[in-house]
Design a protein that fits this description.
The complex is a heterodimer of chains A (571) and B (444). Chain A is of the alpha+beta class and 571 residues long. In chain A, 29% of the residues lie in helices and 33% in strands. In chain A, strands 1, 2, 3, 4, 11 and 12 form a six-stranded mixed beta sheet that branches. Chain A starts with 11 loop residues before the first strand and ends in a 10-residue tail after the last strand. By secondary structure, chain B is mainly alpha-helical. Classes of the chains: A alpha+beta (571), B mainly alpha (444). Strand 20 of chain A pairs antiparallel with strand 3 of chain B, so a sheet runs across the interface.
Chain lengths: 571, 444
């Protein structure tokens, strides 16, 4: 089934296969991505399989088995796939079945049959079983057998891991059309909305997941995406947030029940605590307070408590700050300034937490928009971003032959020259020193590119000069004048905090510095109030083909600037 | 592509600025960085298309636009381009049963594949052309016979039940099975594939498996023929029924006709099943793949048999070899034992001989030593005692010691030296506790 299906009968979905949760989505006839709920009604399906007397449980049902049947429950295994045993970090899977070495790969010792015997099941078999369940859920929902999928992977997934995932998918009867990077899928999910406008943007996708955090800086130029930098972190995670809550509740519990044992030291107590803390965390993303309630937490004692969001924000403050540092670090790594960042897309389940959005937002200037449910009501559910992107990509390439897809994703096609400097026109004055540079094509735009700009002319019309130039972005830092209030502040101790922050505040502005002048052209006799249209075609060989004409006018001026050098390698 | 709007005005052209064609290139772009773009989104697909076909933006725009336009045109002229047979235009509407509804609507190239939408479109086109009012306007007669044919055809084809009945007997859609001669030219799959595709339209189970080609797997081929031998057809022959007379005529007559129709249908259905069975039989007989698989199976079986035989032979050989080896080992062992026995016998004898010789030497030495008598001829008692003692010494010594003693005595003629040797020997015997002091008087 996995082989012979031609593009015609293919039914393709998007799959986001995460360490903690997976999800599946398809694209409707109108081109809208819809996330599919499984039989339990979950759109976020825990990536967990559990075996009870040979019966396979999946998703939420499997997750609740962590308390009762931890030994035969496999969780948090995505990152083990295609890895050697010595290079994995099995901490996350400690609460469930432990990872063991199987030849050089990873396996789990579980009782997955009715027999009283433990089998060593490799992680690829587990993955294949999980994908089979996902495929089944999607097939049941769509009423058609799903045969193909686009699967999202983290940007640092190695080829070996992709191969292993591909194999596992094939075993589950899924033909993998393409692997796409999670952050890019998230961007695609936003850009594929019907009301989305095409603009040149620098987007930061910050994914605060369960077992890892990934930040990617992406240049979006006319719908073409280029990853400029990525940062991965396995310390700042959602599980750590759970841990913070667990510690808090465990301490509160011990305060109330002096004689009781620490629930964190009891396996079942720990599992119960963990499950409830995750639920509390989710509840706090929506409401301002949440109830914690576990029956028989440890030693038969029931425990109920309430926590409000402020408390949670305080508890998690360290992690939130670390996360926003991580985002800033990624921007730095891309050799950009926070001012360059147009948008920050928060992804991953923990992006629901309002404090995450506000902390990250505070680290960036006001020109940067943070897209998260708490800041923008139109935001897409951050947990669903990658899978939606995958579903959209799946619908785009569904009809292509596999070979066609392979050829299109070949480095021959994907490696392209990118502009190192922005190109624009000089406005107001022809002189480089006093002219105002206005970019038409931004830096990091992939070539070839075609852009059009419409530029105003002097009020009275007449002859105008159009100068094309390269420009580079500079950050102008101006320190505000030391305020006279400052002296006063010293005796006013109450104000000292405020003043300190005042002191650090600098005015940062994005300015353009005119670089090399590329060409000059003249349009004569522009009508009063007329506008000039400039179209720039830049080829992969760095040759520029410019067309200038008055809007609504005939004729116009054409000019060619020869490519400085032959294109580097890629034609 | 988005257009950048710049609200700041352009500078005024300075006095005296001139250039050829009003354009003056000055610099060139800085070097570009090579980066990987993400293969995602439809803008990327457009990029990939341009890059792979080496098109520029405007070329790509034009080609894409043309491709889109062509699609629409194809659909359109597909339905109107069929020429109308002048004989068909002469048809009377009352013998509608005899007409080919698809031909009337001009969709013979689709036939049973035609979708409802296509039928509706075709009907509309035909109506526009053949409406009686139009004919009247052209100055023709009020002939609406063909128009009625069109209406009838649409009525049949848009009613799923009636359409099935018509499709069941639509002979124009049948593909005649090729002759044996034709298939031997090597185009079996092409010719029979069409036949089965046409027959497949009657299947209640869709999709119908494809005939495939000479590379199809055994499973596929078996699946295919199983499907056709268990074919479940919806084909009915009601369309060919004789007209049932109206109620007001003879009731018996009506029943008679109905019964006749029923029988005719049943008979045709049976005939059809037989026909299909024969068709599949023919195809199966001509199918090279079946032969191939049988050969392969045969070869497999033979191979297994041969392997078994070889295995047995090998085992027998091995057993034989093992036997021979064992026999050889046994023989070797026996020979070795025999040799050993002989050797030990010889050695014993040699030892005995040597001992005898040594004893002789010792006794001779005793004699040489003048029976340990100081001087002159020894008295008989002394000789006896000396010889007895020498014998006692010999008895107390083992063979090697005797040999050693012999070696010491050999070549010694001097009586004193010999006596000394004996005395030493006795001493060492005493020291070893083998003899008692004074036991060997003559030598002490």
């Amino acid at each position: 089934m996995s082989e012979g299906t031609g593009p015609a009968q293919r039914v393709a979905i998007g799959i986001s296969f995460g360490n903690s949760y997976s999800s599946i989505a398809y694209t409707t006839g109108e081109g809208k991505a819809e996330v599919i709920a499984n039989e339990d009604g979950d759109r976020q399906i825990p990536s967990i399989l559990s075996y009870v007397d040979g019966e396979e449980l999946h998703g939420g049902q499997a997750k609740s088995q962590i308390v009762r049947n931890a030994k035969n429950t496999v969780a948090y295994f995505r990152d083990f796939l295609g890895q050697e045993f010595k290079s994995i970090d099995p901490t996350a899977a400690h609460q469930s079945a432990h990872a063991v070495q199987h030849e050089s790969t990873v396996a789990f010792k579980i009782r997955d049959t009715e027999e009283e015997k433990e089998n060593e099941v490799t992680v690829s078999t587990i993955t294949s079983r999980l994908l089979k369940r996902l495929r089944q859920s999607a097939s049941d929902y769509l009423g058609k057998q799903v045969t193909a999928a686009v699967i999202t992977v983290p940007t640092n997934f190695s080829d070996a891991q992709k191969d292993a995932l591909n194999k596992a998918a094939k075993e589950a009867g899924i033909e993998v059309l393409q692997f796409i990077n999670e952050p890019v899928a998230a961007v695609l999910a936003y850009d594929a909305r019907p009301d989305a406008k095409l603009a040149d943007k620098i987007i930061v996708v910050a994914d605060l997941g369960g077992t890892r955090s990934d930040v990617a800086v992406i240049a979006s130029r006319g719908g073409i995406y280029t990853i400029l930098a990525t940062v991965h972190d396995y310390e700042v995670t959602g599980l750590k947030l759970d841990q913070v809550l667990m510690d808090y509740f465990a301490k509160e519990f011990l305060k109330k029940n002096k004689s009781a044992t620490d629930p964190r030291e009891d396996t079942r107590g720990l599992a119960k605590l963990k499950l409830e803390c995750e639920a509390v965390k989710k509840a706090l993303s929506i409401g301002s307070s949440a109830n914690f309630s576990v029956e028989s937490l440890v030693g038969g004692i029931d425990y109920t408590a309430t926590i409000n969001r402020t408390r949670y924000d305080l508890l998690g403050n360290k992690l939130f700050a670390a996360f926003s540092r991580l985002v800033l670090h990624a921007v730095e790594k891309a050799k950009l300034d926070p001012l360059d960042v147009t948008e920050i897309i928060l992804a991953g389940g923990n992006a629901h937490t309002p404090k995450v959005a506000s902390t990250v937002g505070a680290a960036f200037p006001e020109t940067t928009t943070v897209i998260a449910p708490s800041t923008n009501p139109a935001a897409i559910n951050p947990s669903e971003l990658p899978v939606r992107g995958a579903a959209i990509q799946a619908s785009l390439i569904e009809e292509f032959d596999v070979e066609d897809i392979e050829q299109s994703t070949h480095p021959m096609v994907t490696v392209t020259p990118h502009l190192s400097q922005a190109i624009g026109v000089l406005c107001i004055s022809g002189d480089e020193s006093s002219g105002v540079f206005h970019p038409i094509v931004d830096a990091e735009t992939s070539l070839p590119v075609r852009r059009t700009a419409i530029i105003a002319t002097p009020r009275e019309g007449g002859d105008v000069l159009i100068k094309l130039a390269e420009g580079s972005r500079h950050i102008k830092v101006t320190k505000p004048e030391p305020k006279p209030k400052k002296e006063k502040a010293e005796d006013d101790s109450d104000d000292s905090d405020e003043d300190e922050s005042d002191e650090e505040e600098e005015l940062r502005e994005k300015t353009w510095k005119v670089g090399k002048i590329l060409s000059e052209a003249a349009i004569r006799g522009v009508k009063k109030g007329g506008k000039v249209e400039v179209q720039i075609n830049i080829g992969a060989d760095l040759g520029v083909n410019a067309i200038y004409r008055e809007v609504g006018g005939k004729g116009g001026v054409r000019g060619i600037i020869q490519g400085g050098k032959a294109a580097n390698g890629s034609a | 592509m988005a257009t950048v709007q710049v609200s700041l005005p352009l500078p005024v052209l300075p006095e005296g600025w001139t250039a050829e064609k009003d354009f003056k290139p000055i610099g060139s772009l800085s070097a570009a960085n090579d980066r990987n773009i993400e293969p995602v989104g439809h803008h990327f697909l457009a990029h990939a298309r341009r890059k792979r076909h080496k098109r520029t933006f405007s070329e790509d725009d034009r080609i894409q636009a043309q491709a889109n336009v062509k699609k629409v045109e194809d659909e359109d002229d597909g339905e109107i381009s069929e020429p109308e047979d002048p004989l068909m235009l002469q048809r009377e509407a009352k013998d509608w049963k005899g007409q080919d509804h698809y031909a009337v609507l001009g969709i013979t190239k689709y036939r049973w594949r035609a979708t409802e939408d296509q039928i509706k479109k075709a009907h509309r086109k035909k109506v526009l052309k053949h409406h009686p009012d139009k004919k009247a306007a052209k100055g023709g007669t009020e002939d609406d016979q063909f128009f009625k044919c069109i209406q009838k055809a649409t009525e049949v084809l848009l009613d799923p039940v009636k359409r099935r009945q018509f499709d069941s007997v639509d002979e124009a859609a049948d593909v005649e099975p090729p002759s044996k001669k034709d298939t031997q030219k090597g185009n079996f799959y092409k010719l029979w594939g069409k036949v089965f595709e046409a027959e497949g339209r009657f299947s209640t189970n869709q999709p119908v498996p494809k005939l495939g080609n000479d590379k199809s797997s055994k499973e596929d081929v078996e699946n295919f023929y199983n499907f056709w031998y268990n074919f479940n057809s919806w084909r009915t022959f009601e369309y060919l029924d004789e007209d049932v007379p109206d109620d007001n005529e003879n009731r018996d007559q009506k029943r008679h006709v109905e019964r006749k129709n029923q029988n005719a249908r049943r008979k045709k259905k049976t005939e059809d099943t037989i026909r299909l069975r024969k068709l599949v039989d023919d195809a199966l007989a001509l199918d090279e793949r079946i032969k191939k698989f049988r050969q392969a199976e045969h070869a497999q079986k033979n191979k297994r048999r041969l392997e078994k035989e070889a295995e047995q032979k090998r085992l027998a050989e091995e057993a034989e070899k093992a036997k021979a080896e064992e026999a050889r080992l046994q023989a070797e062992k026996e020979a070795a034992e025999k040799a050993e026995k002989a050797d030990s016998k010889k050695a014993k004898e040699a030892a005995k001989n040597a001992a005898k010789k040594n004893k002789r030497v010792i006794r001779a030495a005793v004699k040489d030593a003048n029976y340990f008598h100081a001087s002159g001829d020894a008295p008989a008692s002394q000789i006896d005692a000396a010889l007895n003692d020498a014998d006692a010494v010999i008895v107390k010594l083992d063979n090697e010691q005797i040999a050693a003693l012999t070696a010491k005595l050999n070549g010694k003629k001097d009586a004193a030296a010999i006596t000394q040797v004996f005395k030493d020997e006795v001493k060492s015997l005493v020291a070893a506790g083998k003899a008692q002091e004074g036991e060997l008087k003559s030598l002490s």
